[in-house]
Automatic annotation (TrEMBL):
<keyword id="KW-0349">Heme</keyword>
<keyword id="KW-0479">Metal-binding</keyword>
<keyword id="KW-0408">Iron</keyword>
<dbReference type="InterPro" id="IPR002327">
    <property type="entry name" value="Cyt_c_1A/1B"/>
</dbReference>
<dbReference type="Pfam" id="PF00034">
    <property type="entry name" value="Cytochrom_C"/>
</dbReference>
<keyword id="KW-0249">Electron transport</keyword>
<dbReference type="InterPro" id="IPR036909">
    <property type="entry name" value="Cyt_c-like_dom_sf"/>
</dbReference>
<protein>
    <submittedName>
        <fullName>Cytochrome c</fullName>
    </submittedName>
</protein>
<keyword id="KW-0813">Transport</keyword>
<dbReference type="InterPro" id="IPR009056">
    <property type="entry name" value="Cyt_c-like_dom"/>
</dbReference>
<feature type="domain" description="Cytochrome c">
    <location>
        <begin position="71"/>
        <end position="170"/>
    </location>
</feature>
Length: 170
């Protein structure tokens, strides 16, 4: 390798470095216009948001009784599919959960042949539509220690429709 080849390789390296440095400088100038390169400032637009310390108006919840009056058993039949994984509507036939034929108005923990959790077996009262709604909304909150693994049905209309469907089997 002679001196001329080394000189050309060094020149090519320096030329390539110069092109990359000039490209970096040009892109910096293109994206950071205004001449405030050394100052500490934010880039972008300011978006005004609502004051987070102000109280948020919560939507007033409609009482279950008012929703249940207009509930649709047909809509509840579609919701039943989730329940049918563990429950049966045939009287006397228990699945993973107790059968639900006649559940509306029945005593809590009253199905023969089903081993209820202690909390439901000893709970007083009937499965009124309101009690069923509370249980379906949050089973573990309504009866702590229940064996029901369902996380709950948050929509009050869905609960009312499902209970209206179950009431057709009384």
């Amino acid at each position: 390798m002679d001196t001329m080849t080394i000189t050309k390789a060094g020149g090519a390296f320096c030329g390539a470095l110069l092109v990359f440095l000039l490209g970096a400088w040009a892109s910096e100038e293109l994206y950071h216009v205004g001449g405030h390169h050394g100052e500490d400032h934010a880039m972008g637009y300011a978006i005004e948001v609502a004051d987070s310390s102000a109280p948020v108006e919560e939507e007033e919840a409609v009482p279950f009784e008012e929703v249940y009056v207009n509930a649709s058993a047909d809509a509840g039949e579609r919701l039943w599919r989730q329940c049918s994984a563990c429950h049966v509507l045939e009287p006397g036939v228990n699945g993973t959960g107790p059968y639900l034929h006649g559940v509306v108005g029945r005593d809590k923990g009253a199905v023969d042949g089903y081993a209820y959790s202690e909390v439901l077996a000893t709970m007083d009262g009937d499965w009124t539509p309101e009690n069923l709604s509370g249980f379906l909304e949050n089973p573990r909150g309504y009866a702590q220690g229940t064996k029901m693994a369902y996380r709950g049905m948050g929509d009050v209309e869905d609960r009312a429709n499902l209970i209206a469907y179950l009431a057709t089997f009384n």
